[in-house]
Amino acid sequence: MTNPKSNELLFCALGGSGEIGMNVTLYGHNGKWLMVDCGVTFADAHYPGIDVILPDLRFIEERLDDLVGVVLTHGHEDHIGALPYLAEDLGVPLYATPFTAGLIRGKLEEERIEDRVPIKLVSPEQPFNVGPFKVQVVPLSHSIPEANALLIETKAAKVFHTGDWKLDATPVIGAPASPEQLTAIGDRGIDVLVCDSTNVFNAEASGSEASVRQGLTESVARARARVVVTTFASNAARLHTLGQVAQETGRKLCVTGRSLDRIIRVAKATGYLKDFPDTIDVDTAMRLPRNRVLIVATGGQGEPRAALARIADGSHQIGLDAGDMVIFSAKQIPGNEVAIGRIQNQLAAKGVEMVTEKQAHVHVSGHPGRPELEKMYGWIRPKALVPVHGEMRHLMEHARFGNAKGIRHTLVQTDGDLVRLAPGAPEKIGDVAVGRLVLDGDVILPADGGTINERRRIAVNGQISVGIAVDRNGRAGGVPEIRVQGVPVEDEREPFLAEAAEAATEAMSGRARDRDRLREDVRLAVRRVATRWTGKKPVVDVVIVQV
What we know:
Shape: globular
Number of domains: 3
CATH class of the largest domain: Alpha Beta
CATH architecture of the largest domain: 4-Layer Sandwich
Number of helices: 16
Helix content: 25-40%
CATH superfamily of the largest domain: Ribonuclease Z/Hydroxyacylglutathione hydrolase-like
């Protein structure tokens, strides 16, 4: 593929299109590339032993001399979470507003690379140049401070890249761009709107963050015992509201969870949460009368190691009993239903009352519903729409909605589609390499490479180890040693092992063979026994020891 030309603007999502999360977008112009965001997504049972999934950046890693920078729209994990693992290799500055920069800096410090990754602070008042791209951050509302759209200008075209956003007439934190300011941006002539599609199926607007305060206050006020509220740690506005709720209901505030501590620390350092009440530690909270404490905990998405999961299973310092209350001040992220349900069942078994957005107004979304999308179209008036941040069903529906509301050109693309945004109407012109990487402990691996595939096979079928001995002439002998893990022979383990050992012995007998042939003969013999007994095909490893 040739480098982007001086008269064209290219677009390519390496993550975040055709999926929710792991957002990475490239813009190409005049031989250079600009990256917007670099996030992660979170693993499910398909990736045993894995928590975090990273984008495969091989396309741009092969063109690092042409990458001019990474601009971050906001501080959510699906937009900045991959930076601690990938930013140093990219070797370019990161551009972020102060709150987002504070979160990134903390991540880089944990990896001890803060001195090797430059962060440049930007503000809405000051456009900045990154190579051939002129960029201006435009503040919008979202469920985290300093969420920004990007106005990206080149000689070929102007793009309004929304990032994650919503409309909020009464924001609790921050000052989003007004309709007049967004209209003025539209007056400059926007060629393409690259827009969040997460809530395109919602017929109603997302609602104001300020509206949640009453529902939370009423729920906490009627509680007669201990109250735990779980919410997204990054939602500093919700934390501000919970501080007010605690004061209004006469309860002391306790915060538990490292991510909550980090958000509060960075928010205060960058001028937010100035009137947040003093908090108490867990030990103090547990000594107070049950009706005098409000606890904010991480883990509302069912994360197994987060505070709420440990509270539910009884392994946390905070204990809940019958009559206590847990408020889920967050919406379930698709895919987390089972994990959340498990925690809720554990809480229910204790007699804990649960309040979700279905029982009370305790949450509003951070993404735009259809009325908000329509308003943005009217202010920005783009010639073309490229939906992002959604699964295929979201992207297709967003394109249909944009067409219905008068946007002439729409283009549905997915990760790896190389798109020419200008000149002319957006069109796909090629494909680039994309994929997923996993963070496995401290090692980054291909998501569908040998290690993870082996782990999947072991998880599904179990594993058998066979130890055999050979003499210096290559002849096998003695009694094979066999161990099994995860093979369903619990009730008949000893007879199974005896038959497997007999099969291995028979496979070892006869002529001398090279070690590879001997190993394969024994492996197949033992696996045939396992398949006959269980109907499964476990992973069989044969270890040969010379005696």
